[in-house]
Structure formats: C-alpha cells, structure tokens
Amino acid sequence: MNNLKNRTVWVVGGGSGIGRAISVKTALEGAKVWISGRNIVNLNETAGIIKRKHGSARVSVCDAVDYLQVKKTADEIINKDGRIDTLVVSIGRAIPGSLLDTSFENWKDLQSQHLDSLFLCCRQALAGLKKSKNANILVIGSIFGLKGKENRLAYCTVKGGVANFVRALALDLAGKVRVNSICPGWVQTEMSMKLVDATEDPKATLKARHGWHPIGRGGTPEEVADLAMYLISDKASWMTGQNIALDGGYTAR
Length: 253
Ligand SMILES: NC(=O)c1ccc[n+]([C@@H]2O[C@H](COP(=O)([O-])OP(=O)(O)OC[C@H]3O[C@@H](n4cnc5c(N)ncnc54)[C@H](OP(=O)(O)O)[C@@H]3O)[C@@H](O)[C@H]2O)c1
Fold this sequence. Notes:
It contains eight helices and seven strands, in the order βαβαβαβαβαβαααβ. The protein is an alpha/beta fold and about 250 residues long. The protein has two domains: about 10-185 and about 220-245, Rossmann fold (3-Layer(aba) Sandwich); about 190-220, no CATH class. The chain has a seven-stranded parallel beta sheet with strand order 3-2-1-4-5-6-7, with helices on both faces. α1 (about 15-30) crosses α8, α3 (about 65-80) packs parallel to α4 and α4 runs parallel beside α5 (about 155-170). About 45% of the residues are buried. The structure holds NADP nicotinamide-adenine-dinucleotide phosphate (NAP). NADP nicotinamide-adenine-dinucleotide phosphate binds near residues 64, 190 and 191.
C-alpha cells in the first residue's frame, strides 16, 4: 500500500462522496493529501477519517470557482510541499431538466461549477505539477459526458466539455503532465441521493437508477477510488487523454 509514498495529492471536492473516498485511499497509499472544498465541517470529517487510519491530511477551505481562493490554496500547497504530484478534481452537482425547464441561471451555474472550476484548479496547480516527475491530473467526469441522456441537458453539456477538456489538455501537456478522467455511472453519494430524494417516488427512482446498469446496480465511491489509485500511480504512466467509463456496463450498449 505504498504506491503513492511521499506524493503530494490535492483533492478538490475531498469533503464528501467520490472525492472523500479518493482522499482516503490516496492517503492509505502513502500520499500527503490536501483536501479542499467550501464546507470546513465536511473537510475536517474526511481529514479525521484519514488521521484515524494514520494517514496524512491537510485541509484548505476553497471555493473552486473563485480565482483568488484557488490561487491561495495552490500557492499554499506548493510553498509547504514544494510541488504537486497529482490534482484530483471531483466537484459539482447535477441538475435535471430539458431545454425548456432548465433556467438560464442553472445553465450558467452548472458551467461555472464544472468547467470554470476545472480551468482554475488546473491553471493554478500547473506551477506545482511542473515541479513533479510524476505529474498527473484526474477529473471525475460522467457517462453523460460520453453519451446523451434524456432530461439532463445542462449536465450532459458540461460533462461533454469536461471530456474534451481532458483530451485537449493532455495533448498540450503531453510528456509533462498526464491528464485523464473517470466517467462513472450512477454512484450512491450525497449528491446523487439528493436528486433521488427530490423525486415523487424516491424508492422507485432508486431502483431505476440501479437498473440503468447491465450489472444490475450502481457503483460505490470506493469502486471509483480503486480505479483512481491506478490512474494517478506510475502504473498508468503511458495513459493520458482518456475518459474511462466505470459504469457496470452502461456505455457497452
Ligand atoms: N454520484 C454520482 O452518481 C456521479 C456519477 C457520475 C459523476 N459524478 C461526478 O462526481 C463528482 C463528485 O460528485 P459526488 O457524487 O461525489 O458529489 P458530492 O458528494 O456532492 O461531492 C461534490 C463535492 O464538490 C464540492 N464542491 C461543489 N462545489 C464546489 C465549489 N464551488 N468549490 C469547491 N468544492 C465544491 C462539495 O464540497 P463543498 O460543498 O464543501 O464545497 C462536495 O464535497 C461530480 O463532478 C459529479 O458530477 C457523480
């Protein structure tokens, strides 16, 4: 369990869900983990889990769509650890809706949450990543960045943007920083359960979410984190520019 020994890993969105599972596994692989997000209580909870497992975790409150806050966090990490080996971006929310029931406000908000944050975090982390011999970026995309889906117009649009951001950035940084994404199917987290609970019949909706996947169930944050451990380690040293579906067979159709 030492594939990431002494690596500095910054997990944006490490306070909950998939980002939390990645933070914990990264720390157990020997990395020095920095967790950022807006909610200090959630960040401290993740750090507490890591510390109880004898890992290294530091937290930084940072709104990923705020240029100055992102710069402050990136600079703090680089000043304290000298470099950034891995940047993980696992943030944002999903908003259901087709063209007419997506407000312009929600449309713009989703772009900011998923795309502005990605741009800002990658840009500010780059100076630190360039100081690493094993530099890489991992983004959490979605199967809905690879395929269309009814009633998910804004979310499909931004996740499609994330997938092509990954390809284009990987080309620009080839040989210096590897850039990949994991595109999960439905994963049970706070975010996904909020959407389920907001439906008319949450029990039926939950069953339907699991039923999306040929395997017969949705995924867990830990299953996403397992693939993340491979992608951010040197075992994936030849892999860049890829958006990898992890989805119980959803995209095999
Ligand atoms: N769950 C699924 O079914 C699923 C499937 C495919 C893809 N994904 C993707 O996986 C990623 C993580 O989702 P999740 O399910 O793990 O949801 P989650 O538990 O709600 O985690 C999202 C995290 O993003 C952080 N965040 C949101 N806006 C932020 C901002 N402006 N600045 C900093 N942090 C921010 C939140 O922390 P704060 O509130 O503390 O800021 C939270 O910790 C998202 O990109 C999502 O689209 C999820």
